[in-house]
Q: What sequence folds into this?
């Protein structure tokens, strides 16, 4: 909302307050000023030099002796002699030969910097002395474009007749436009007058009531049955008040410059005097108005037209002012006449009854509509007008008559209209006056500062609250326009913001700390992050919203489809089709991240730790249940060469399954879970069938790890190189880590060197190496402290269908050096076990 | 040759041979040949039995003397050879110390994680524990229970992603537009005990993605409920936060504002971390940067959370996560955060 300071000054005099100071006061009080546009003053895009850009009057216009399209204007700018100005301004050209004129204009001397009126956009130009067809030219009369007031070059600007001559133009037309960003549903702040009222309270100054008193000035009275119109409200729940004034025989034409200027500065485009007046009063008082061409309204009976406010019949249609045909549903509130809809209530008028150049009589509507319904209609029709915006923020129903009178008064003075003294006014939703029981002690309790009761009463009264301040329990009556104030705490806020937050001391909570509890789940999550980063992986955080087609891309054609938990959570209103679903798996996010990074980097090693989402059960508000499961998952991906290039030979082969497995083994080791996991061949459509493991923990599936299926790799447009990845259930992992944590005990640290020996075992091809290793450790427990698998051999030296697994064993006791006798016995035990379980034989 | 002569011959040979030994293996071989158990000197010494009895002590003495002499000579030569080898090694093994070291892959925490951890740590010092709430929320929790009824203009403050549900579903669902619904969840879980929590998490807004706005970002909400909690406590807590997060000596200022779930509501600014308050493009020449929206918990919200507003009061605040990091590191485009360009993430 844009408010020119010059307009604000009409109601509250702040001419002596520096603009920056005023802005700061408004900011702190909750009327956030987003920016201040400066016109003419220093700091403006085009400051008007006070000694070179002046007010002036054109005294006479003579033809140019040597140019057909130019004239010579005799201009009094306050100097000792009038200046002859060469101009081609159309309106002056038309008056050539006239004398004794007193046309007030904007005048610029040589040296003044102005915008070039004849070029596109904004080009600055310094006015220079020249000769135009033999006549000296050292000054000009200016257009709005040249002064930076309008985008289009039209005629020169004319100032009001009472403008003094020879004063700096900036004093007359200069301005500061405050652009407010007022958060919240505050109808009372959506107007110049509303802001003026706030400023008056903030600065403790009087605020003019002049714009509110046109009813009295015009001597208006209201009736439910005016003789010029039949009024009926059929939906009183949506239309608390409907006021209709009648202005006869108006002359449609342009509105005066000052009004046009104010409208433009407030961001509206002038149209004609009647429409401009309705807009002007809306900006001034915050009540949206609508002017109908009375002659175009139909009646239910022949003698007079009718206005019926009712809900639309579903499917009813009308063409709005913007020449768009609209179809309504049954909750849309319409203004109708005897023939059909003439306006969408509070949103936009109809094209048919619009004010036109030939309009004579005006029916002026000032109504109040239920704000939620106006908002709903605006949203449904996607029609966000100034009117709908204001109604949507709640408007005081008391304003209708005040604003109608104000507009009628202006139509009388600016459009020559005749205001009928009787105003139609139906007011079925007249609100009860609101009073609040208030204890000034509440302010102290909530604010932590002591604002004396006297000071609180002063502040509330300055904001037009009526305060009966007796003892500790007060009664406060809320002004009708403060629709946002309904509770005692609302009054506390008024006190706080006017008293000033800059006066508040800074304290810390004085109460004892509530009992603290450990957030195990978060600690676990952060521990996993730290471990993976230490293992050389980069953390990524991808979007929760994904392309629903990605789940399909994870399954190669003809493969059994991927099973993902629950049902997908889909959006009703996605931003884009590829962000239409909450992810059920982290894999696509990792694959896309890899794809994007492989354009620049040769090696990608990443992990993500985040929630997946799936529908599971029905939502329930009483049970606080969303019906969506959000377990935390862990995903990781490696691709690219194992080692970066270097100046000595490096291992440049591709990262593979065992690189990723090594990383997660370290992770599991740190969590105390390595020995708890079971590894087996995995069956997952997204993975290479021979290089995929399913990892299980305490009987539950933790997830999969393996190399990406080549067809899935293609589906994600990834380059032809091995990509290894995993996706595990982090909640399960952390729960298990939490469960084993209390069991973890220090293992002995021996001071005796271990005895090492290698043991090569021949087993069937399908015997898992891990099982053999675990069997060795178990058979040798606790004196076999290591069984490192260092070689897997298949070939001529072992029978077909067999493989040899070579383990480096470490034998160690906590308290002594093991003898060869001890070791022989341990070895025998181990060999017996592996022979029994796997048919393993010692390799010759 | 007599054994005596032989002895002298061995000595002379050995000393000769020793000077020809220039390597450690050669010296070891020499030692074996002359002084070893099967070496020449030992063999000769054993021959003592063939001498007449009276000559034996003289022979023995001489043999011993020679053994000592040879041993000493060997040691000296050994030390000499080692010294030579060492000098040679030191002279030849020099590397170009400016060559790059063997590369080690270093992992990085996401910038968002780093920022969140800073916030956790700061508020942990002030007694706030981390409380997590779901991303997919009930409309009632995201709006109604926070004093934002349907079609209320306050809902305009959040552009919402709605979950596709059955029509006329009793419990409509959405992607939380702020972390505030967690306030209700935390309060309902803890009432009527005093409470101090921060609520971190992803939030979602139906907003076109630009350099300044994302449809997914993080927030950290704070909530304290107690019997004596005041606005000055809130302001003091925010000041403490500003000093710990943005640096010691930070000033703050408080502006009145509007949020439906707090009353009174405020916004908190800190003096611009880039220009120190003089005015720059980042602070839009105001000298201040907005760091939090906050306020005293609205009585309706307290009530909905299970606390009697006549006895309890509380404050709540909401902090950005990406924006402070953007300001701090001069990141001009928020899309870097969840675009996951590793060249971005590895800088932090
Ligand atoms: Zn700055």
A:
């Amino acid at each position: 909302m844009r408010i020119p300071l010059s307009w604000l000054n009409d109601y509250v005099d702040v001419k002596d307050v520096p603009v920056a100071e005023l802005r700061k006061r408004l900011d702190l009080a909750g009327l956030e000023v987003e920016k201040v546009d400066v016109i003419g003053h220093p700091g403006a895009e085009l400051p008007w030099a006070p000694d070179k850009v002046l007010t002036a009057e054109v005294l006479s216009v003579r033809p140019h002796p040597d140019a057909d399209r130019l004239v010579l204007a005799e201009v009094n700018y306050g100097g000792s002699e009038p200046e002859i100005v060469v101009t081609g301004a159309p309106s002056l050209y038309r008056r050539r030969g006239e004398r004794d004129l007193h046309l007030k204009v904007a005048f610029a001397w040589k040296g003044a910097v102005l915008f070039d009126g004849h070029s596109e956009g904004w080009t600055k130009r310094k006015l220079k002395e020249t000769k135009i067809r033999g006549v000296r030219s050292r000054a000009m009369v200016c257009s709005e474009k040249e002064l930076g007031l309008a985008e289009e070059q039209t005629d020169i600007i004319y100032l009001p007749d009472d403008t003094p001559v020879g004063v700096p133009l900036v004093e007359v037309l200069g301005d500061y436009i405050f652009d407010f960003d007022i958060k919240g549903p505050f109808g009372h702040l959506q107007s110049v007058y509303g802001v003026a009222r706030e400023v008056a309270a903030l600065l403790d100054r009087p605020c003019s009531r002049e714009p509110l008193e046109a009813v009295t000035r015009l001597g208006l009275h209201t009736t439910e049955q005016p003789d010029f119109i039949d009024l009926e409200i059929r939906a009183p729940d949506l239309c608390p008040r409907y006021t209709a004034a009648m202005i006869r025989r108006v002359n449609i034409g342009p509105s005066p410059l000052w009004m046009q200027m104010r409208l433009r500065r407030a961001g509206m485009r002038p149209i004609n005097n009647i429409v401009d007046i309705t807009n002007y009063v809306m900006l001034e008082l915050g009540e949206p108005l609508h002017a109908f061409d009375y002659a175009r309204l139909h009646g239910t009976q022949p003698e007079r037209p009718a206005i019926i406010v009712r809900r639309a019949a579903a499917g009813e249609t009308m063409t709005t002012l913007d020449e768009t045909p609209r179809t309504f549903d049954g909750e849309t509130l319409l203004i109708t006449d005897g023939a059909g809809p003439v306006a969408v209530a509070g949103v936009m008028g109809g094209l048919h009854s619009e004010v036109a150049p030939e309009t004579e009589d005006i029916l002026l509507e000032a109504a109040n509509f239920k704000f939620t319904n106006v908002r709903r209609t605006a949203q449904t029709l996607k029609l966000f007008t100034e009117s709908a915006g204001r109604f949507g923020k709640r408007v005081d129903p008391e304003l209708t008559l005040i604003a109608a009178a104000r507009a009628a008064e202006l139509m009388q003075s600016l459009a020559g209209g005749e205001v009928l003294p009787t105003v139609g006014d139906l007011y079925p939703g007249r609100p009860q006056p609101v009073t609040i029981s208030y204890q000034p002690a509440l302010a102290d309790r909530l604010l932590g500062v002591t604002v004396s009761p006297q000071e609180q009463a002063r502040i509330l009264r300055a904001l037009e609250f009526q305060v009966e301040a007796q003892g500790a329990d007060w009664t406060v009556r809320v002004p009708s326009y403060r629709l946002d104030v309904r509770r005692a705490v609302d009054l506390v806020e008024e006190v706080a913001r006017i008293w000033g937050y800059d006066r508040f001391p800074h304290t810390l909570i004085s109460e004892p700390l509530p009992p603290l509890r450990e957030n195990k789940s978060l600690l676990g999550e952060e521990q996993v992050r730290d471990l993976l980063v230490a293992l050389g992986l980069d953390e990524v955080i991808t979007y929760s919203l994904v392309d629903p087609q990605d789940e399909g891309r994870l399954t190669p054609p003809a493969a059994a489809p991927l099973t993902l938990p629950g049902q997908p959570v889909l959006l009703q209103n996605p931003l884009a089709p590829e962000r239409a679903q909450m992810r059920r798996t982290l894999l696509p996010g990792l694959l896309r991240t890899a794809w994007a990074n492989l354009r620049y980097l040769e090696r990608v090693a990443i992990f993500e730790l985040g929630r997946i989402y799936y529908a599971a059960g029905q939502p329930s508000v009483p049970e606080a249940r969303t019906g969506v499961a959000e377990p935390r998952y862990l995903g990781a991906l490696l691709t690219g060469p194992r080692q970066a290039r270097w100046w000595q030979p490096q291992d440049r082969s591709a990262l593979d399954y065992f690189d990723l497995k090594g990383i997660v083994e370290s992770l599991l080791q740190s969590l105390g879970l390595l020995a708890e996991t079971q590894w087996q061949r995995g069956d997952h459509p997204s993975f290479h069938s021979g290089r995929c493991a399913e990892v299980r923990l305490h009987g539950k599936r933790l997830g999969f790890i393996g190399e990406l299926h080549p067809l899935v790799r293609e589906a994600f447009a990834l380059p032809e190189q091995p990509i290894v990845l995993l996706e595990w259930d982090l909640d399960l992992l952390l729960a298990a880590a939490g469960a084993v944590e209390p069991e973890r005990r220090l293992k002995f640290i021996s001071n005796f060197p271990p005895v090492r020996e290698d043991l090569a075992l021949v087993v069937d091809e399908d015997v898992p190496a891990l099982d053999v290793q675990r069997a060795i450790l178990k058979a040798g427990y606790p004196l076999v402290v290591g069984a490192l698998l260092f070689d897997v051999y298949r070939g001529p030296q072992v029978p077909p269908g067999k493989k040899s697994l070579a383990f480096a064993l470490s034998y160690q006791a906590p308290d002594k050096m093991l003898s060869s006798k001890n070791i022989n016995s341990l070895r025998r035990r181990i060999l017996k076990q592996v022979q029994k379980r796997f048919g393993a034989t010692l390799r010759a | 040759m007599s054994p005596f002569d032989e002895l002298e011959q061995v000595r002379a040979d050995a000393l000769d041979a020793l000077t020809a030994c220039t390597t450690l293996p050669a010296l070891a071989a020499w030692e074996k040949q002359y002084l070893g158990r099967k070496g020449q000197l030992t063999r000769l010494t054993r021959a003592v039995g063939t001498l007449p009895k009276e000559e034996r002590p003289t022979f023995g003495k001489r043999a011993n003397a020679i053994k000592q002499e040879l041993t000493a000579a060997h040691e000296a030569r050994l030390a000499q050879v080692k010294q030579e080898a060492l000098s040679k090694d030191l002279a030849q093994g020099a590397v170009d110390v400016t060559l790059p070291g063997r590369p080690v892959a270093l992992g990085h925490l996401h910038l968002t994680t780093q920022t969140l951890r800073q916030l956790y740590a700061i508020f942990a010092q002030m007694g706030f524990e981390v409380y997590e709430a779901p991303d997919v929320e009930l409309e009632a929790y995201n709006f109604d229970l926070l004093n934002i009824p349907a079609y209320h203009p306050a809902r305009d403050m959040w552009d919402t992603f709605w979950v596709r549900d059955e029509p006329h579903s009793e419990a409509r669902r959405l992607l939380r537009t702020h972390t505030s619904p967690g306030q209700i969840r935390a309060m309902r879980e803890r009432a009527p005990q005093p409470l101090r929590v921060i609520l971190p998490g992803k939030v979602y807004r139906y907003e076109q993605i630009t350099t300044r706005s994302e449809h997914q970002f993080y927030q950290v909400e704070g909530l304290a409920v107690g019997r004596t909690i005041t606005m000055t406590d809130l302001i003091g807590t925010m000041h403490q936060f500003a000093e710990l997060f943005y640096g010691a000596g930070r000033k703050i200022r408080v502006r009145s504002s509007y949020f439906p779930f707090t009353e009174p509501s405020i916004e908190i600014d800190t003096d611009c971390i880039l220009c120190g308050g003089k005015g720059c493009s980042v602070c839009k020449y105001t000298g201040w940067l907005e760091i939090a929206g906050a306020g005293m918990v609205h009585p309706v919200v307290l009530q909905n959370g299970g606390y009697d507003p006549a006895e309890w009061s509380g404050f709540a605040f909401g902090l950005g996560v990406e924006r402070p990091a953007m300001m701090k590191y001069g990141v001009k485009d928020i899309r870097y955060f969840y675009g996951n360009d590793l060249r971005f993430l590895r800088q932090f």
User: Anything to note?
Assistant: The longest strand of chain A covers residues 53-63. Chain A touches chain B through 99 residues (CB under 8 Å). Chain A has a mean pLDDT of 93.
